[in-house]
């Protein structure tokens, strides 16, 4: 594991170099773009929170750039259905790879495959791989979720992502839904805040916990899963709570993100700490108590949330969790739906689960391992 040494700017350039090396581009003959070209001066200006490169070390170049690089400020999710056969999907992936290969701005591109396509097209994906079961409290619009193919793009500029999406339009896919999210502007290098005003992403798995995110062995080694939910947030009702009640709902302080009873954002929450009267400092219904990994035998998920604002009443969180087993999401969400103090303020309106094939070594086309055996790790 590499120690965190870089300055933010150097880390970003290092990240961009890793992106150039690790993104699923398939033209080995062409030299990789210079790191500065790949990141572009706009990346810093856009306020990219460039921390150190997590999950560095052996195999890091084969990790998905969209999961491991510092979170870029804009997200575009493009979901499609594919009426064709595996050969047509392969052609799509190769054409997309050629377009992405020409891109010269800070960018990550991550391919996802929905469960129905995995089975129908006979793709190499983990088995079993099924849709999420219905979850309590869900108010899902099926047309706004799921899909055979998902392309997750992140970048420094929303307009650039839209332009790229236009360039990625190819025959053989039927657009299903698309959505844009952003990381609200904030101090560089700090955990971003969600629409409730709380830091979101503080307790993500660290570099030594990659085993919870990537599949360890077999033909899908280095692959992962994305669980995506579009979650509407009632900001008016939440804002009406007194600040200490808001903090009891989340289990953290609004100011600095520290867990109740603690003093630092990234310290472990003390779930046993009590007031002199014997009440838990982090209440039984607090969001961070019910999502704590101790309730799941230590299993973790990597969360990268983006805010969306689509008009009155349609704003919230584009929840993206990356994990090696979607069943973890189901267990956590079942707990949240029943007991989470946050639940009255949120509503899940769209959902999808996707297998993310391993990116493979430099020069590999997007999704290459879906079409035949490949062992990258
Ligand atoms: C709009 C809905 C949601 C909001 C506003 C929200 C907000 C937050 C906040 C503020 C934190 C504390 C800071 C942090 O560690 O990131 C947190 C932690 C967390 N949330 Fe959520 N969350 C939402 C939905 C979900 C869902 C659907 C899940 C999974 C089913 C989830 C899983 C987690 C996990 C695993 C943690 C880390 C807990 C820990 O280890 O301390 N969240 N969330």
What does this structure look like?
The chain has one domain (9-23, 35-371): Alpha-Beta Plaits. Helices cover 24% and strands 18% of the residues. The protein is built from eleven helices and nine strands. The protein has helices at 8-22, 35-39, 42-45, 65-68, 86-101, 115-120, 158-167, 235-239, 243-250, 287-290, 326-339, and strands spanning 74-81, 107-113, 149-155, 174-182, 224-233, 302-303, 306-309, 315-323, 346-356. The strands form two sheets. Strands 5, 6, 7, 8 and 9 form a five-stranded antiparallel β-sheet that branches. Strands 2-3-1-4 form a four-stranded antiparallel β-sheet. The relative contact order is 0.19. The model is unreliable at 1-52 (pLDDT under 50). Bound molecules: protoporphyrin IX containing FE. Residues 194, 196, 198-203, 229, 231, 233, 250, 252, 269, 287-288, 291-293, 301, 303, 316-317, 319, 329, 332-333, 336, 342, 346 line the site of protoporphyrin IX containing FE. Residues 194, 196, 198-203, 229, 231, 233, 250, 252, 269, 287-288, 291-293, 301, 303, 316-317, 319, 329, 332-333, 336, 342, 346 line the site of protoporphyrin IX containing FE (HEM).
